[in-house]
Amino acid sequence: PARGIMLLSNAINVLVKEERDILTSLHPCLFCLCLKARIHDPAMPFLHLAVPKIFKETANQTGPYMDPKWVVLYFYYGGLLYAVLGRYEEAFAMMQKACCIPAIAPSAIMVRAYKTYVLLSLLLHGKILRLSNYRSPVMTRSIIPLCPDYSALERICDNEEENFDKASAILEYLEAHYATFEKDKTVGLVKLVVRSIRENSVKRLTECFISISLSDVARRCHLDDSDHAELYLREMSKNGKINVRIDKKQGIVYFDEMKTEADEQEVDKAANSIYTLDALMKQFDDRIRVNPSYISRVGRPLARGVPAIPPDEGLGHPGSVFMPNVNVGDIESAAGRPMDMVD
């Protein structure tokens, strides 16, 4: 595997030359091999880059630059890499992009991406965040109905009945449908969702109580007993998620305020990035307002039944899509990461 990783990395460097921010079909192949070999570091330099360009691999001048499946696989495997490294926010963003790729028919890749997206959303937010409005209708019409077990997890997490133990309900559902999750290789993520639910229950106690008994912690968080509650509290304290003191003799837990330290240089750097991004967005807005193509579209009376906004062009030739003369890469570099898909 290490030899294959080296060959793919060298091949990508030869193809893109000095323009490292170009996406090729070899990128997802490299990510896949790194995942299978459990050697993740070689993929990181290619994963952290903003990718505003696609390497042209087809001879057709008017068709797409490459098979769209490689674009979907880039986001899917990239999300898996981030998830393996415990960087769930980045993994969630990558899966979100994979689910929002324009499509006219369902694909196995997008089905797998959506399943992972659901679990990451439950892990990070406790609910499934709605995908962007520009997602393909195929997602709602065909892909989501193919994931009934994951929709069931969503319903469990949306249950707000009093004293309802979401974590235990998910574990029971996992046990009843273990074969399905084992086939999808998502058992580990489901268990992380369960742990996240219990940890969030403990965090809510820190917002309401200064001190509380271990038995009450176990009862309110639906844990087995006081020892189980103490185990959770100590692990969360060790990981810096809460600041807690435990009086073992009296069985009392004391929640202390979390201390936060801000690096002035990091704060200044983030502020400068915001100012730069704001200036670029204003420049983008100024140029688009005076662009003749934009003015002609806005000022042209619309025929009945014609949408005011042109349909998504998909992954086609860039010449067919109107874009003002602003480099998207500049905006992404100012933001410090690829632009996330938002509603």
UniProtKB/TrEMBL annotation:
Which GO BP terms, alphabetically? ubiquitin-dependent protein catabolic process
Where does the protein end up?
Answer: Cytoplasm; Nucleus
Q: Which PANTHER family match?
A: 26S PROTEASOME NON-ATPASE REGULATORY SUBUNIT 3/COP9 SIGNALOSOME COMPLEX SUBUNIT 3, COP9 SIGNALOSOME COMPLEX SUBUNIT 3
Cited InterPro entries: COP9_N (IPR055089), CSN3 (IPR050756), PCI_dom (IPR000717), WH_DNA-bd_sf (IPR036390)
Record key words, sorted? Cytoplasm, Nucleus, Signalosome
Question: Which SUPFAM superfamilies did the record assign?
Answer: Winged helix' DNA-binding domain (SSF46785)
Name of this protein: COP9 signalosome complex subunit 3
Family in the record: Belongs to the CSN3 family.
Cite a GO CC annotation: cytoplasm
Q: Where is the PCI domain?
A: 87-260
Q: Which residues cross the membrane?
A: none
